[in-house]
Amino acid sequence: MGHIIPLVGGDWSHDGIAEFFNAIQENGYQFIYLSARAIGQSQITRNMLNKVKQSDRKLPDGPLLISPDTLMTALHRFVLVILFFNGLFSIYWNFF
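User: That's the sequence. What structure does it adopt?
Assistant: Structure tokens below.
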């Protein structure tokens, strides 16, 4: 969902994340954003991070590290991870 929701203008961010990340930055920490998204989605991902604005605060600036893979490879990896965690934690919840 995180690959698709931002493409249609949806906000996939957690409430209060901008304030939380800014409080961390004010304590002297720097941010590096990590994403499993494909290299072809780098600009979309950067735009999504720049659009997060909550209570007049945005996410702190920082470099974005993404997967050098294609979109299909990144989606395939995402599905495999979801299936793995679904099998691992299926006694607690089911993704499907």
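The mean pLDDT is 81.
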